[in-house]
Design brief:
The complex is a heterodimer of chains A (74) and B (182). Chain A has helices at 12-20, 32-50, 56-72. Chain A is mainly alpha-helical and 74 residues long. Chain B folds into 2 domains: 1-81, RNA polymerase sigma factor, region 2, helix turn helix motif (Rna Polymerase Sigma Factor, Chain: A, Orthogonal Bundle); 99-182, Arc Repressor Mutant, subunit A. Chain B is built from 10 helices and no strands. Classes of the chains: A mainly alpha (74), B mainly alpha (182). Chain A binds chain B through residues 22-24, 27, 30-31, 33-39, 41-55, 57-59, 61-63, 65-66, 69-70, 73, and chain B through 1-3, 8, 11-12, 15-17, 19-20, 23-24, 33, 36-37, 40-41, 44, 98-99, 102, 105-106, 109, 120-121, 124-126, 152-157, 159-164, 166-167.
Chain lengths: 74, 182
């Protein structure tokens, strides 16, 4: 994995890639701050849908099925 | 027996969160709403098997998740057998999902393997405990924990985040900051 060519043998592309690369490839542990931000974004996206409430089609569906059950009841 | 009023209310109050979960699974609002509808039909047909006093939300999520696994994934496999298809569906229909501002995050989320995505959403957004999420997914608590960790790590990679400072707002926000700042 960590096989490294001597610096002098690196071609330009590789050198550029190395320079631009932040140490992301260490999936060891995310900082708490990063986890918190990811969590915030995830919840914001999710809550965007939750805040739309119950669409009419589902309210009607549940009420209709409930009505059917009552009719069927002995 | 007619449905208890409290049961009916519990079912209805779970609907918004069920939809949000379904959208995260399907990546498409129309399909997600169909999934929610089928879930409600199944749940209400089997409402007698719901044990009063247990978590209605978790019960409904379990039905939805199992139904999605058995039906929707089967159907999707007929079209294309890859998780990449999910991401492509999202990209082609950005407006169907909701607001544009979550696009970057949403696309990254869509690239996660589905078992990691569902674990992350259940724990990180739906507010279930690791134990409840394990019950919903039918796996061990440790499995959920590792899926959530892998999901977070992968998300951070996809979004190129190493620290909170790197956590760029998405394009819309960046544009606003660039024009307003300095």
């Amino acid at each position: 994995m960590n096989e490294r060519k001597p610096v002098g043998q690196q071609n330009h592309m590789e050198a550029a890639a190395t320079r631009n690369k932040k140490p992301t490839s260490k999936p060891a542990k995310l900082g708490r701050d990063v986890q918190a931000r990811l969590g915030q974004q995830l919840r914001a996206m999710y809550d965007d849908v939750v805040n739309q409430g119950v669409p009419d089609r589902f309210a009607e569906l549940v009420n209709r099925l409930d009505g059917d059950r009552k009719k069927d009841a002995p | 027996m007619p449905m208890d009023e409290s049961v009916r209310k519990a079912v209805l109050s779970a609907v918004p969160s069920l939809r949000a979960f379904a959208i995260s699974l399907c990546g498409n609002v129309d399909r997600a709403d169909d999934l929610v509808q089928e879930t409600l039909l199944r749940a209400l047909a089997n409402i007698d098997s719901f044990q009063p006093g247990t978590n209605m939300s978790a019960w409904l999520f379990t039905i939805l998740r199992n139904h999605f696994r058995s039906e929707y994934r089967k159907r999707r496999r007929e079209v294309e057998d890859s998780d990449g298809h999910h991401a492509e569906t999202l990209k082609s229909q950005p407006d169907q999902y909701g607001h544009v501002e979550f696009r970057e995050f949403r696309e990254a989320l869509a690239q996660l393997p589905s078992d990691q995505r569902e674990a992350l959403v259940l724990v990180g957004a739906s507010g279930f405990s690791y134990e409840e999420a394990a019950g919903i997914c039918g796996c061990a608590v440790g499995t959920i924990k590792s899926r959530v960790n892998r999901a977070r790590t992968r998300l951070a990679e996809l979004l190129h985040v190493n620290s909170a400072e790197d956590f760029g707002p998405d394009e819309t926000t960046r544009a606003v900051l660039a024009s307003g700042g300095e």
